[in-house]
Amino acid sequence: MVLLSFGMALLLGACGKTPEVANQGNSAKGNGNAVNAGNEQANNAASNTASDPAQNTASGDADTMTFHAGNGDVQVPKNPKRIVDLTDFYTGYFLALGAKPVGIGDGAMNNPYFGGMLDGVADIGSDASPEKILGLKPDLIVTYAGTENIEQLERIAPVVAIEYGKKNDKDQMLDFGKLTGKETEAKQWVEQWEKKIAELKPRIQDAVGGKTVSILNPYAKGLYVFGHNYGRGGEIIYGEFGLKAPAEAQKAAIDSGTGWASISLEKLPEFAGDIIFTCPWSGDTSDPKIVYDSPIWQGLPAVKAGHVFQLNPKADTYNDPVSLDAQLDFIANSLLSAKS
């Protein structure tokens, strides 16, 4: 099995995987049988591949380059044709570049913004087995830095590990352009995106003025506050439009570099902006009305002014180029409607 850190478990909770994924991961770390079973499974799969070089697409491709990733310098094929993407949140980069993966996680598979773009792509689920990955004959595997047992994946194909949120969307797009041999397409997307932002930004800043903007998700223990690099429009709101978060949200979710913070309902007024983007947390089954119907929420200035905008919990958690393009109009129109 592939195990993730708590931070990645929180991230994956956004696409329908629950925060309990973190606990499952911790249990697996302490459960020798589970880990050993996963290692044995991967070793057997890798051994079978190594015994038949004709089946190993990566070893048969001499046209390689060095790519700097979160797991160091990796030798990868110059023009990978069979990418398996285990990240969910970076799948849209490959789709936007025209480098459609052969296998992706179920979170990405269920992203509404990817509709019509996934023909022929295999759903490898939320915890793909080595056999399933091997069966797709990948020449490149993309996963997160911090993924445990990554060496087992490396026995199947070259592995590029990504440090989530380290690069902004434009730099990440250019980086993936190099990885996939699609540098021209990457530059074109960045140019088109920057043109859209340049046209919208003055209008947005004029409409919003000095108002602050918050991104809030109710969950079982309170609320998540999101910042500039954790999806839900943060990249657009704070990064591209340069809008201000409330001081406490700025400190906890942006200046901290984490991209998110967890707060109690009682702390909400300190983190709530004049404009709020929100949606229920899809990582648990708690009732968001506990927050939305509370006197504290109902008393917020943004709520009273009608400046609360509902995000799509199945789609707007993503921050890849396809998702950002889809989110831009909604976010811009919402902000423009909040003009005093």
Automatic annotation (TrEMBL):
Top-rank lineage group of the source organism: Bacteria
Positions with biased composition (Low complexity): 26-48
Gene3D superfamilies in UniProt: Nitrogenase molybdenum iron protein domain
Segments forming domain Fe/B12 periplasmic-binding: 82-339
Coiled coil location: none
Coarse class of the protein's main subcellular location: other
Presence of keyword Nucleus: no
Presence of keyword tRNA processing: no
Comp. bias (Polar residues): 49-59
Protein name as it appears in the record: Iron-hydroxamate ABC transporter substrate-binding protein
Family the UniProt entry places it in: Belongs to the bacterial solute-binding protein 8 family.
Subcellular localization(s) per the UniProt record: Cell envelope
Assigned keywords, A-Z: Signal, Transport
InterPro entries assigned to the protein according to its UniProt record, in alphabetical order: ABC_transptr_periplasmic_BD (IPR002491), Bact_iron-sidero_bind (IPR051313)
Disordered as annotated region, ranges: 26-62
